[in-house]
Amino acid sequence: MNTADTVRRVSIASSILFCIGIGPLAWSAQSGSIRVQVLDRDGKPIKDAQITLYRESKEAAVGAAQTGDDGMAQLENLEPALDYKVKVAKPDYAPVVYREIQVYAGKRVSLPFTLRRASELVDH
After folding, report:
1. Across the beta sheet with 72-78, what order do the strands follow?
2. Rounded CA gap, 89 and 73, in Å?
3. CB-CB contact of 45 with 36 (8 Å)
4. CB-based burial of residue 80 (10 Å sphere; 0-12 exposed, 13-18 middle, 19+ buried)?
5. Closest to 73 measured CA to CA, from 105, 115, 113
6. 10-14, 39-43, 51-55 — which is least confidently predicted?
7. Mind listing the pLDDT tens digit for each residue in 73-84?
8. How far apart are CA 45 and CA 50, in angstroms?
9. What is the pLDDT of residues 61-75, one digit of tens each?
């Protein structure tokens, strides 16, 4: 094996190690996230609300999460884009949708949602 072959093999090995070790960190810096907080009209957290993430340019959902005891949910590793849509739904509550959410690389968008019981929206 000559010197050129050795240099090429070391270069290839270094590239592979770089991709394995640094690649995930680089990807996280290139993605964004959305944090959702879901509360009722009294400001109390709503547990187990379903969060569904869509892109306006795509028909299918591109992400989903569920709120915890604190009414919070996180959608991470999102491709930067200007056309996200978030739907929040829970049985017995009227669903809420936010459109045209902008996600930027390395940034987190925080979205507060207030859900109202479906029975409150019915005319009596």
Report:
1. 72-78, 32-39, 108-114
2. 13
3. no
4. middle
5. 113
6. 10-14
7. 999 999 999 999
8. 13
9. 999 999 999 999 999
The answer to whether 34 and 84 are in contact (CB under 8 A) is yes
Angstrom distance (rounded) from CA 85 to CA 101: 6
Sign of CA dihedral 112, 116, 121, 124: negative
Which among 116, 118, 51 has a CA at the least distance from the CA of 85?
A: 51
| Placement of tokens 């770089």 in the chain | 18
Class of domain 32-118: mainly beta
CA distance 42 to 39: 8
Angle at 29 between CA 51 and CA 87, to 5 degrees: 15
Residues with Cβ within 8 Å of residue 101, at least 6 apart in sequence: 34, 83, 84, 85, 86, 109, 111
